Amino acid sequence: MFPDLAEQLRAREQQGLRRFRQVVESPQASHITIDGRNYLAFSSNDYLGLANHPDLIQSACVGAKQYGVGAGASHLINGHSAAHHILEDVLAQFTGFPKALLFSTGYMANIGVVTALVGREDAIIADKLNHASLNDAALLSRAKFIRFPHLDLTALEQHLAASSARRKLVISDAVFSMEGDIAPIKQLIALCEKYHALLVLDDAHGFGVLGEKGRGSLFLPDSDYVHSPNIVYMATLGKAAGVFGAFVAAQVDVIETLIQSARSYIYTTATPPLLSHVLLTSLKLIEQDEWRRDALLRNIAQLKNGLQSLSWKLLPSTTPIQPLLVGESTEAVRISERLREQGILVPAIRPPTVPQGMARLRISLSAAHQLRDIRRLTQALNELALDS
Known about the structure:
The protein has helices at residues 4-14, 54-67, 75-79, 82-95, 106-117, 132-141, 153-162, 185-194, 252-261, 263-266, 273-288, 290-307, 329-341, 371-387; strands at residues 31-34, 37-41, 99-103, 123-127, 144-148, 168-173, 198-202, 231-236, 246-250, 313-314, 321-327, 344-345, 348-349, 359-364. With 388 residues, it is of the alpha/beta class. Strand 4 (123-127), helix 6 and strand 5 form a beta-alpha-beta unit. The strands form three sheets. It has a seven-stranded mixed sheet with strand order 3-9-8-7-6-4-5, sandwiched between helices.
């Protein structure tokens, strides 16, 4: 029907950009099984090792017995379960906001928030390295879409000062998913307050991992978070929390606006209530198990130490996302494949996810990784570097 599709796919494959799915046959963990072979995996966002935790599995069984399997309807019809409602209250308390709202995914949350809050008469000012979901949300909103260089607060302020838009929305990752670095949240909040803008902060990779008791990037010591009314906070529940879904936390008027106007919330079936029941257990473990975050810090330090002599350099990240910059896509794919031959999974990240010439290995660390796992990876990478 569209003969050019096959040609596009061939071209993508020749450029080393074609992606393939791999079928995982085991639970998500630091060691997984694919096609009957066991691998040491550095490719998951299960940062705290909760995705296969026995307490969460038990909670899923209890939740299924109490609430069934499916929600059966959207939240605004009759799919809003007591489990959803309880979790929203707990998430609001956990993050220090007046109110929280559940979404099915972080992608849907970002789409819903941005398109509900701004339109044609408004302006969105966004960090250039934001997640694709924030970029797509900005385009769908039909607001004026301005992107500033990564972490360039001077450029951001210039755009804010020059804008005469009805509403101004600054949108940023809190932890950048392909860089691993952290946004200057304190300064972002100050600029938004100065220029009467809202700050949409996507903390998909910080929630559960960073801040006091894993409450997220807003609770880092230098964030100076004082419950600013200018913040709209989004975090996912399928990464460090180990389950599925996302939530938005903000002032009451913002959350009520989302309930009335966020199309990705209104026009979709609610997530299974049993997952909300499981997430109550997950939040308890996030809050209580400080050793998990300690283990992450230990693993990050060991990885950095083991790779410091490589010609490929780790980007400056203090988070579980540790990108090893390689450069060319074909070389990144080659290294990833050589590691796979040794039973180690590290994905190669290529354009268009990252800019041309910036292909990398995205090493994702988990509290479930042992020191011997980190040692095995660093030894393999050092040996591959000698062969290059």
